[in-house]
Amino acid sequence: MQSVVKAASVGQLAKASCLGVPANTALPAAAVAGPAKTYKKVGTQVRSIHAGNVDVPDFSYYRRSATKDPTSDNKSSIENRNAFSYVMAGTLGVSGAYTAKALVNQFVSSWSASQDVLALAKIEIKLADIPEGKNMTFKWRGKPLFIRHRTAEEIERERAIDASTLRDPQTDEDRVQQAEWLVILGVCTHLGCVPIANAGEFGGYYCPCHGSHYDASGRIRKGPAPLNLEVPVHEFMDEGTLIVG
């Protein structure tokens, strides 16, 4: 390092330069001319460029027609270019929204009930198979379903009850669509036990687990149950068929 500093102080540093010129071309005079007196020219390297064999890429095919002319004004084509950008952005936005909607629908539909569950969503019952004064039990959605063919005496007795005196006030008319048919779920509203039909102090249903008594309209009359037996959604058809669900 000391030798380099000493050489610089006496002006003995050399300078090398590199110059690229086309092939078969004489070296310019400026390339061999000596620089300032401080430096001493010791060599020049010449590298030839074979211009005839170099392929210059042409991207004019990918350019817009309005921008191919280098002398054209950029402001004259800004409206067309903006319109193209807006159309592309709108198309991509609509396509993205449609794709997102399809994905969300597919995801939500995967949560829906399977075909075997939907098949049990409704049950069809022939009312002619249930004699008057009897209660029949069916299975619906994994729960016991009570269908009671009530007699005229039961209908008259239940409709004579003052609903305001009941724990869960409901009139008999509010719980049945046809007076002779009572459709309820056989699940006690206390702890989910299955009551016994045609039993209890009121001639309706009795839950032996904790002593809840229901009348022939499925209303709680005695015991710990807080609510009446649930009435599911049902519909009577013209051919004497009941559809529950």
Furnish the topology, listing elements before pairings.
Blueprint: H1 2-9, E1 14-22, H2 29-32, E2 40-49, H3 78-109, H4 115-119, E3 123-126, E4 135-140, E5 143-149, H5 152-159, H6 172-175, E6 181-185, E7 196-197, E8 203-207, E9 212-215, E10 220-222, E11 234-236, E12 241-244
Parallel strand pairs: 1-2
Antiparallel strand pairs: 3-12, 4-5, 5-6, 7-8, 8-9, 9-10, 11-12
Q: Can you tell me about this structure?
A:
This protein has a four-stranded antiparallel sheet, with no helix packed on it. The protein has a three-stranded antiparallel sheet with strand order 3-12-11, with no helix packed on it. A hairpin with a 4-residue loop joins strand 9 and strand 10 (220-222). Helix content is 25%, strand content 25%. It contains six helices and twelve strands. It is of the alpha+beta class and 245 residues long. The protein has two domains: 2-53, no CATH class; 119-244, Rieske [2Fe-2S] iron-sulphur domain (Rieske Iron-sulfur Protein, 3-layer Sandwich). The chain is rod-shaped and about 120 Å long.
